[in-house]
Amino acid sequence: ASGHPTKYHDGTMVPKYSSTSTSTGTRTMLCRPGDGHTRACSHFQMGLRAAAAGALDQFGAASNYWHLGDSSYESLLSDHFTAVTPEIGCKWSDVQAAPGVFTFSECDRVLEAAEAAGQQFRGHTVMWASGDSGSAAHAWPAWLNDTLSAAELRDTLKTHVQTVVGRYAGRQAVYAWDVVNEALDESGSIGDSLWAKLGTGEGGERDFIDEAFHAARLASPETTLAYNDYNIASMTGWSAAKSQGCYDLVAERRARGVPIDAVGMQLHVDTEYNLVSGVQANMRRLGALGVEAHVTEIDVACAPLGQSCADVGGWTAAREEAQAQVYAAVLAACLDEPACTSFTTWGVTDAITWRRDERPLLFDEKLEPKLAVQAIRDTLAANRSWVDAYYARAEPAFKGADGGAALEGGEDSTLLIVLLAAGIPGATLLCVGAALAARHLLRRSEKVRLAKVPSTPSAREGL
Ligand code: XIL
Q1: Quick one: which of 60, 68, 353, 395 has the most CB atoms within 10 Å?
Q2: CB of 322 closer than 6 angstroms to any ligand 1 atom
Q3: Are strands 262-265 and 292-301 parallel, antiparallel or unpaired?
Q4: What are 389-406's pLDDT values in tens digits?
Q5: Closest residue by CA, ligand 1 atom 3
Q6: Strand pairing category for 224-229 and 27-30
Q7: What's the pLDDT tens digit per position in 127-150?
Q8: Looking at ligand 1, which atom is closest to the CA of residue 347?
Q9: Is 83 exposed, middle or buried (0-12, 13-18, 19+ CB in 10 A)?
Q10: How far is the centre of ligand 1, averaged over its atoms, from the C-alpha of 418 (Å)?
């Protein structure tokens, strides 16, 4: 299979995006031809929020407090996403711009809007370790500098973490906090920053990462605590070293009792991204550690970070399609790995994004859905054409990168998992989307693992 999928599961034709996208008032959806493009149809057919419910614990988007109140933006956010992450507003510079003075209004606003919309909320980010991400202004304020002694810095960090995480402890909507953001350099070592003053953890003293996670756990024992970074998603290719560093950081600390529950893979990538099987393998190895993998900030730009579409020959139909395929392939990897529970895009529309010239998101500048919306919807519903097309162009085959059993892709394999699980109570919901059902079952039973699925049709027949 390649390119745009042509049929829905029931055999009806998938409309081409350009001729069938519609706006119904402030809500923008895709509908099938013939169903009148009514609001009801839109919601029923295309709300990714409904499509994602049950498939993932969170299908989220980054959101900003200053766009809340814009009804078209809010509709898009609430129709399509089950969770939000504040793009800014909860970062150190936002909540403690001056020493000891905490201001939570921006962070609160995003959480309150999420609660009102029945959505979940990811706290982002308690602290930031590197100052070189181009986001230094949000990383930490100028007062937090080298003139603080090690003891003062340690106290300041603990107080900050406890105050921020503690403020939202017990709020049902809060499913996770990114506790430490971007601590690793590209070689996979902990990068140099002002936090080095707290030491390297040798001799039993806590380094800043240990300190931050312990303080967060103390402040909110129920919240999932994540380490979040970029270029750590794939354990193969150019991000192998940093991804290994991340794995080691988490494994070693967990062995010492540091409460790291999840790894956030930012995934600020582009349409050429070709390491998704390495991402999936990494999700699996993190799962084997007992750690959740969260896709926390995915955006798929037309060009690498720092370049614009114009630099790479403009925004073309082929790029939009490649973008849809990358989104679908990463989502499929996540859906296939029990460790991956959460998938968040870094924004909603190309009109509002830190990569404004690169058209990285699911909805265009006019808030119309792009092909990626269709690809995500299809992937949630287990039509894997987009995913197959991605692997056909980018990687040789959809194989377990650990050399284990290959899942051949397509509906056929997810159906098979459901059939294998047929002995399990509740395994009778084969109808809506086989992948959804399979995922439920995978979650509920250790007995059913992808690794147990024979990779060839003949071996399956013997089951
Ligand atoms: C970015 C926001 O998108 C920008 O609007 C802001 O100016 C700087 O921060 N990694 C992260 C995010 O963890 O917090 C960053 O967000 C993008 C990179």
Answers
A1: 60
A2: no
A3: parallel
A4: 999 886 543 333 343 333
A5: 354
A6: unpaired
A7: 998 755 445 566 788 898 878 999
A8: 3
A9: buried
A10: 40
